[in-house]
Amino acid sequence: MFSLDELVVYPAQGVGKVERIESQTVGGQSVDFYIVRILTNNVTLMVPVKNAVNVGLRHVCPPDEARAIMESLKDRSTFTGYTGQNWNRRYREYSEKLKSGNLADVAYVLKELLLIGGGKELSFGERRLLEQATGLLTLEVAYSLDIAQDSVKDDINALFEDVLKPKTPE
Question: Residue 49: phi, psi to the nearest 5?
Fold first, then answer.
């Protein structure tokens, strides 16, 4: 399914590289593992080959999907914001979306938090989720499109410049 030196995505961790495939004895049985090093923090994961897809390990999205995800950030028609929903519920919803491994879900969280931040100061927890969503999305899109991660961040900042501008007292 995955090969050596291939870039893969692990949910909530981001883009990693398959460094090797090794066998270990677990419970008296030989089990094959992908050894994946996450590129952003050098964390090494051991993912059982048999369960790789079940735990969400997947290929980096194709370029056309990355472009569609970036395009989807422009659509603000589905933005509900924080009206009528408490932060705990939103935090759980956003955390689950980030753990899903689905890039469209990550983009949703990123867009929502950027737009919420345009209307009010984000809490510490919200800022952490925003940082995580930004890192996950920008790194995968950068690898998919073979461009610099900073370039992707700049594109996102340009899309949301109206809400990212510092508030000036009137």
Answer: -55, -40
